[in-house]
Amino acid sequence: MQKSFVIVLIAALVGAFIFFQFVNAAASVAFIAGIVTATLIFTFLPAGSANASNEPYVGPTMTLYVGNLPYRVHEGEVKELFGEYGPVNSVRLVRDRKTGRRKGFGFVEMSEAGAQKAMGKLNDYIFQERTLKVREAKSQESDPAESAN
C-alpha cells in the first residue's frame, strides 16, 4: 500500500469518529464526511519536500569521488548521507563487471556549495565502520594523459 493512501485512510477514520461523536450522524455518513474532509485537507495543503528532493538540482554541480565505501551500502544510503550538505543529483556506485559486486567506491554529483561542505565534513568520516575518503572527482579526459607520464 502507498503511504499517502494509508494517511488518507487514517485521516478519514479519525474524521468519521469525530463526526460520529459530535454531530450524531450515522456511521456511513460520518465515514463519507471523514473521507471528504481528508481529501480537502490533502488537496489544499502544499506538497511536502518529497517532491522537491526528486527534482534534479540545476545550478553549478560538482562530482565527488567517494572511496572506502562499505561493500553492502546502497545508493539511497549514500544519497541520504550527502544530502545533508546539499542537493544530490546522482549517486553511482561502481560494480565489478564480472561478478556484479560493488568495488567499494563511487561518485556523487551534487551542488557545488554542498560538495565543498561534504568534502570538508565527510572526508575521514566513519560511515558504517569504514573511514570514507571524499575528493573532487577527476574528469575522464585527464586520466589517459596522467597515466602516460
TrEMBL record:
GO molecular function: RNA binding
InterPro entries with a match to the protein in the record: Nucleotide-bd_a/b_plait_sf (IPR012677), RBD_domain_sf (IPR035979), RRM_dom (IPR000504)
Domain RRM: 62-139
Keywords of the record: Repeat, RNA-binding
Signal peptide range: none
UniProt key word Repeat: yes
Protein name stated in the entry: RNA-binding protein
Protein's organism: Shewanella gaetbuli
